[in-house]
């Protein structure tokens, strides 16, 4: 989940989880993060920490969640 990506008046926060199976080895991970910049995010970059792995195929799913604000 990415929170407040288009806001230029608040930090952008992320919650993530991932899993993969390579050579019958299951890898899973979860994480949180914050981008401490007051700027609007206009794109996403997906990279691998392990440079020995080639990303030849896979599925990347991006969903939107609408949050109504009743002010």
Order of helices and strands: EEE
Helical content stands at: under 10%
Tell me the distance between the termini: 24 Å
* Percentage of residues in DSSP E strands: 25-35%
Given the C-alpha coordinates, what overall shape results?
A: elongated
- Unreliable spans are none
**What's the mean pLDDT score?**
82
Radius of gyration: 15 Å
Describe the main β-sheet briefly: 3 strands, antiparallel
Number of strands: 3
**What is the structural class?**
mainly beta
Strand order of the largest sheet: 1-2-3
Q: Tally the helices: what do you get?
A: 0
Describe the overall structure:
The chain is elongated and about 50 Å long. It has strands at residues 2-3, 12-22, 25-35. The protein contains no helices and three strands. With 71 residues, the chain is mainly β. Strands 1-2-3 form a three-stranded antiparallel β-sheet, with no helix packed on it.
């Amino acid at each position: 989940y990415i929170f407040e990506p288009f806001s230029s008046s608040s930090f952008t926060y992320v919650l993530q989880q991932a899993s993969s199976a390579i050579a019958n080895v299951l890898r899973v991970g979860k994480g949180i993060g914050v981008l401490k910049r007051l700027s609007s995010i206009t794109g996403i970059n997906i990279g691998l920490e392990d440079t020995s792995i080639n990303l030849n195929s896979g599925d990347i799913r991006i969903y939107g969640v609408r949050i109504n604000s009743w002010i």
